[in-house]
Amino acid sequence: MKSSLKRYIIGKPLRSDALGEQKLSKTKALAILSSDALSSVAYGPEQILIVLMTVSTVAFWYSLPIAAGVVVLLTALIFSYRQVIYAYPHGGGAYVVSRENLGVNAGLVAGGSLLVDYILTVAVSVSAGTDAITSAFPSLHPYNVVIAVFFVICLTILNLRGVTESASILAYPVYLFVIVMLMLIGVGIYNVVTGQVPAELHPKVGTPVAGISLFILLKAFASGSSALTGVEAISNAIPNFRDPAPKNASKTLLAMGGILAVLFIGIVSLAYFYGVAPNAKETVVSQIAEASVGRNIFYYIVQGTTAMILVLAANTGYSAFPLLAVNLSKDGFIPRIFQIRGDRLGYSNGIMMLGLGAIVLIFLFGGTTEHLIPLYAVGVFIPFTLAQVGMMRKWWREKPKGWLAKFMVNTVGAIISFIVAMMFFVTKLPQVWPVFIFLPIIIWTFHRIKQHYKTVGEQLRLDNVELPNVEGNIFIVPVAGITKVVENTLHYAQTLNVDKIIAFYVAFDQAEAKAFEEKWKAWQPDIRLVTYYSPYRSITQPLMKFIDKVEHQCTKSGYQLTVIIPQFLPKKGWHHMLHNQSSLLIRASLLFHKNIVIMTVPFHLLK
Amino acid sequence: MKSSLKRYIIGKPLRSDALGEQKLSKTKALAILSSDALSSVAYGPEQILIVLMTVSTVAFWYSLPIAAGVVVLLTALIFSYRQVIYAYPHGGGAYVVSRENLGVNAGLVAGGSLLVDYILTVAVSVSAGTDAITSAFPSLHPYNVVIAVFFVICLTILNLRGVTESASILAYPVYLFVIVMLMLIGVGIYNVVTGQVPAELHPKVGTPVAGISLFILLKAFASGSSALTGVEAISNAIPNFRDPAPKNASKTLLAMGGILAVLFIGIVSLAYFYGVAPNAKETVVSQIAEASVGRNIFYYIVQGTTAMILVLAANTGYSAFPLLAVNLSKDGFIPRIFQIRGDRLGYSNGIMMLGLGAIVLIFLFGGTTEHLIPLYAVGVFIPFTLAQVGMMRKWWREKPKGWLAKFMVNTVGAIISFIVAMMFFVTKLPQVWPVFIFLPIIIWTFHRIKQHYKTVGEQLRLDNVELPNVEGNIFIVPVAGITKVVENTLHYAQTLNVDKIIAFYVAFDQAEAKAFEEKWKAWQPDIRLVTYYSPYRSITQPLMKFIDKVEHQCTKSGYQLTVIIPQFLPKKGWHHMLHNQSSLLIRASLLFHKNIVIMTVPFHLLK
């Protein structure tokens, strides 16, 4: 555990009081927490066009009002979550808000969805980023899974090293992506305004479209709003911000919302003006870049930064998952290990768990995790809705100054989120049905764990029940021969206040048993030896039988039974392979099955 | 370990005194121990023709004298090994014979070669059998590795169930193969004798061949004698025979030699008369069967039994490897676990080790292990030679009645084996060079293990050095809180006659340390509490530091230090995941690094 390899990879441990230094500035936080949301610009617009194309390319003009709708939804969410940040400055986002205002089960639905969702985020984003890279270099295609797993491992290590260090490395690509996208949109719009883009490339806004239906439009809208996943990340991660944390978080959230809105509208508009149609071989962003600037160096920069931001989007999961896990763990719904800070003060168990989960998903789906996107989007809009409803309830109950305006903001957020979630269920049921199976299982598990902690707590609590009086102590020493190890153990046992020491020996045939008994009598005439014959060549079984017998007698007479195991320890690790490890087996089976004290007296070999 | 699954797969345990019942009758032994040797009929003749074809198909007539040479070699080996059986009725074959007559290192060369060789046997035979099956059903070809591993697992389980049970299942295919081969040879010879085979198919014996050289002929002979691998199996496995074991083993050996000679000569002759030339797509046996009887049902029976015997040839390794391992282990050259009889009285660790080794080889070579054959053949002829030389030495030294005849038999065996081994080194060096690397490493390891057992034995032996007097006992109790578990532990510690009990607590911040100290004073005023503050959030490190300190003082004043660990045990297995396992970590690092007694006081939760 303390090997120099670990030190090299993770860095040297940090003192607990260094915690303040690990906090995030606004610019770093924007980079680290918004890559998930911003990266969706790379696929959100495309999702809208894919749905519209099922009717006709003439319907593409609808992408403009739909994008406007998505931006309205985004605005509503941003303002709703801004209120969450100020109301819950200790973070926790949807889980805490729902639990406190709507009850435990609503909280667990939100928390459970998000917990799974972050794992999906990592798997989906990394796979998508890998795809972008292997599309550029087709010879790498057979290594998709290996590359994706490699990225996940890198992200895991970066996050184990600590939150600000990873931010420093991750900030540049995010800002680079934003700048490159803004330049692309700038050039594109300039071309459109200066009339360099032929008008016949795009259908006029308002052109009637045969076969268009409200269902199709809603489906397109739902698809487009998958670009809003990741918006909640900041509200979960407030404790990571520098003081004043809520104010800094709120500013970061607004900045993210602004950037996301501009990029989203920009890409959708350019796609419309250039008449870009989605196709399986080339992404919409790639087509826009090619149409605006041609296949030059800038085109490759656009593709490169897009690939990078997709991989980094996974990092949002790494920031939010461990913090959510801490909240769930503090409430006793998931194991306590998620509350332990690692050497570098990050919640390392959460980070490793997330990395492991993502790697498993990548292996299971062979690196093609795209069809998990709707599942992942619905898993985001369920907690969105619950959080907004929770906020409504809060304002309604507490009625602080100016509560009505706040109530209205969250009501709008709640209604829109709910509608989007429903649209996913209605229009994409074949992909989102697993939610109905996994969510109940997860929530049931949460309750089981909570129940366990509760009963354990009750059993461990001191009470006024007096512990029974101990009349005396009996020691059993299992011996494998007459050696220094046994001598050493008996010598130790004799220094303690013991009423009886019984040596116990297992013989594999009757003659051997007799011979051993005689040798023992000559060596240790004062210590009683019991020998059992084991016809099935097991050592543990006869020992257990004997212990049962003695334990039975002890219980009757108020004696305490202790098994004291002589154990010799070779000097080098590989030597362990050369010796039967019966004492370890004996110890394990005693510890787990019997209520008796087990003592190990080590005898370290010197060479 | 004692799960019902294990019972179902392996069968119920057998009593040690049931050992006699597991012994082999001659007919079963012939099946179980000769499948390796007999299966080589399926590839031995082909190996000869492949070498001759490098000159010209006219050279094929040389296959007849070469086959005769192989049969001479076989006869020499059979009679040599017959003498080994009588001289060493407890088995051990080449290893025991070489060690006793030529010294430890000669024995280890023989034993090491054979040990590795049996693993190669299993991997090579099973892969070849799988190839035969997937050649018949090409759609199975992508699953070659999976099928081969499946066969190895089946063989391992059969052998873990016990030696006679596996023989019962394995006897039928071996006898079926022998009968089918005899029928094939019978039909073929009948056709030849009745003149149904055109004479122009085969070159006349004695036809001069341009370009033939002694080197080619020797290479062909060496290749053909790879059919003799497996001949030593019976001499290794004498203890598996029913009494009188040596006599039964000797008869079985003669029977095997006779059958092998007939089949080998028969197949070579038919190949010659039908003018069969080896080709990559169809085996020689398959071509002979097709030429003699056509592609009818009998043809498929020939192919099927051939495939089966190849898989079963692996079983010879399962009989011989564990027994050789026992011999090496008894002499202290390999770990002692190989001497333990499993539930079904087989040496189960040897069986599992062999299966595992073969599976690793199959995975490493992707199921195409054919080019391991020369390596495997040379690994057989080295111990052959050593065993025969050892026998020569024995007769020379002991000079029993009629020793000269016996000496001559073994001398002939030794010379021929040596020549064959040398021919492999000369003609197939590119495939057999790993012997020169692995054999020295293996022998060095054998000596290291032996040396370790020796030094351990010396250190464990009782001597007259008095153990130091213990002035008193000090207990350290690491506590994680004020709970029933701790109360229970302290209660126990107080029943032993201890001079001092010190509770030890690790706090993660200063305020917490103070608060805990006060609570403790109120609860256990008589037991001293020591609190350390851990800035790096480690529990083990501060505990170790404290133990070091106390241990230092104890050593000075002759006190014995014991660490007594309170441990609560949840009722169900999955509950363990929900609790930090610090006490297990603490115990492990104490046991391996410190010379102090460790006690675990369990507190079993009831729900």
UniProtKB/TrEMBL annotation, chains A, B:
PANTHER family: POTASSIUM TRANSPORTER KIMA. Pfam families: AA_permease_2 (PF13520). The lineage of its organism: Bacteria, Bacillati, Bacillota, Bacilli, Bacillales. This is APC family permease. Its main location: membrane. The chain crosses the membrane at residues 59-81, 102-128, 140-158, 170-190, 210-231, 252-277, 297-324, 345-366, 372-391, 403-426, 432-449. It is a multi-pass membrane protein. Keywords: Membrane, Transmembrane, Transmembrane helix. InterPro entries: AA/rel_permease1, APC_K+_Transporter. It is found in: Membrane.
